[in-house]
Amino acid sequence: MTTSTLPVTTGGRSAPDAGAPRGGALRGGALRWWISDVLVLTQRSLARIVREPETLMDVTIQPIVFVLLFAYVFGSAIAIPGGGSYREYLIGGMLGMGIAGTAPGTAVALVTDMSTGLIDRFRSLPMSRAAVLAGRTVADLLTQALGALVVAAVGLAIGWRVHTGIADTLAAFGLALLFGYAFTWAGACLGMVLRSPEAAQQLGFILFLPLTFISNAFVPTQGMPGWLQAIANWNPLSALAAACRHLFGNPDPAAAVQVWPMQHPILTVLLWSAALLLVFAPLAVHLYRRKSLA
Amino acid sequence: MADIPAIEAEGLAKRFGATQALAGIDLSVAAGSILGLLGPNGAGKTTAVRVLTTLLRPDAGQARILGADVVAQAGEVRTHIGLTGQYAALDDYLTGRANLIMIGQLGRLSHRQARQRADELLERFDLTGAAGRAVKTYSGGMRRRLDLAASLIGRPEVLFLDEPTTGLDPRSRSVMWEIIRELAGAGATLLLTTQYLDEADQLADQIAVIDAGRVIAAGQPEELKARIGDDRLALELVPGADTAAAAAVVTAYAAGPVSALASSPGGGGPQISAQVTRRDGITTEVVRALDAAGVPVTSVTLRRPSLDDVFLTLTGSLAVDPQPAPGPALAEVTGGAA
Hints:
A: 12 helices, B: Alpha-Beta Plaits, 37% helix
């Protein structure tokens, strides 16, 4: 049995690596290959963005529209309990929405992938199974980071300012991206369960819209009916917005809300992120395996 | 080592809901040879390929690639195989070159090796000019070639080609045939599925005819053709013509039983068909004889045995139902989407 059999070079030329058994590389360095697979697939997702930059609209145009809409239209009618600028209040909430808002996109991309033959190709290769999902989520994390920068830039343009130091600012962005990455895995699960990109798009929107609006992201919860306040105050996006506002030194009326997550927003976001990752990442991998093995 | 079959399957079975896609398949393919898996849509060809390439788990039975079990040692199997499915498994948004490099790297080549190999394959498959273009701009034939190149990038020892020429124009088809022959000549083991008897005949060392999830005949193309018989002579008569007289005339030229139908499926006149052992001049002779017997003829054709003839001979029923039953057709659809 020869290990290398297909000379597809013309005229008898053979590649320098001819004869190298490719199975040999599998032994040892499993982690190195896993990282390599994830990077290759991340690169693939990013290459698509370079070809079709309009796929970035949900982290570029959309947050700009939302910020302008809320800052100039709705914001004029929203009073911040305890006082302060609504525009400064807005950005902490917008950051969470802009970042978590990519999750439906994750679902759509994965449903699309699963419906093409490309996933079969991946599965017939000696690569890591989980790398397909990891590569997608890492690429989405990078687009989330871009989204965060866009929100910050448009915020600065409308008068949002950070009143703390660089460490707190970085902590706020880090916290938002950590939560965003964990949340992406929920989108990945959705992508494994649904059959069509359209369904993923619509269901993602239906689930995501109440999640962002029944929170303190845009409006302080103090004015909501009591039962809705309870939901909003326990919504992880409220904790994320409160944590960011606290770290930026922006108006944070949630600090006056006597509910545990609002009293400990940073810890709440960390716990939520860990819980989302622990539940949805293994679930997504499980669903991926099951779906593809039938 | 040299004695292990490259592909081996025993009693492979797979069910999708109510459909038994594979009902106990046995295969053995010697290293360096080509097996043609011949069968109609829904026969279970794609399901068999998916099981052999670790994409599907069989309900029963075993399969080994170069001695490695496709379930228990799936990881090792994947280091030996290349797969070209029915639908080009490529990223439409990447360039041809980027696709190959990506698949090479995922197939455990270093970036440098993958790049070098991609360029070799692009040149070999006449895609160098299109290498920098997104795959979604490629024609059907170019996609197939790139897809095949992608499955070769890791230098697989065993290559699976699922209907590699379906949907290709004749020129692309002959290019594909040439490539397949070259691969086989270089010592690779190939399993290719096809719906075309001539394709299996042209390319394969061994043919397994598969129907309703079972191998119903297996052997060398010559053996199989000997069982299926010779060329077919088919006549259509003017409506109302004397079918019995025509059949009597044709019998003199036939190598086997002559069949007569009172009317053509399309609403035409009676049909007469028979196997004949020679080609030269036979249509002229038959038409003259029929003319002499006073039987008017609408058309006469001489054709090679088709997949239908194979199935007619082996199973007594037509391979492709004019109105496909939902069951078998579903088997491949489910197999592809699952």
